[in-house]
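User: Before I run my own analysis I want an independent prediction to cross-check against. Here's the chain; please return only the structure tokens and, at the end, one sentence I can use as a sanity check.
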Amino acid sequence: MGGDGHGIGPARTWGDRHPLGPTPELNVPPAPPLRMRTLGPAVAVALVGGDSGWHGEVAHPAPFHMLQSYLSGTVEVTVSDGESRRFGPGSLLLLEDTHGKGHSTRILDEDVVLLLTQLAGAGTGSGAGRISTG
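Assistant: Structure tokens:
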């Protein structure tokens, strides 16, 4: 998974917003530069867990911009245009569908643990949700 051709970056959902811009480099002397994608300031960070079989079948917009970093388990996310994708350990999902019909989520196999980072800023998109890799 990755969205910038370099293997880093989250898959993301959004309303009618333009994807993130180019990936700058991060210099960490004395090591060679690393690629970095700035997502904005974090408001809060939480560990979230859900039991296998849990589902949020009714589509809903994300309550705020968030980055979900999956640590265990697998979920399936379906956006309003009908596209579904599965996310498991090591997957990143940037949710920006704060307007419109939103998405639904269900836990597929085992209990899920994810690191949720609430990002600053209100949603400005509208219309059908989409899942993108960059």
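Sanity check: The chain has one domain: 11-132.
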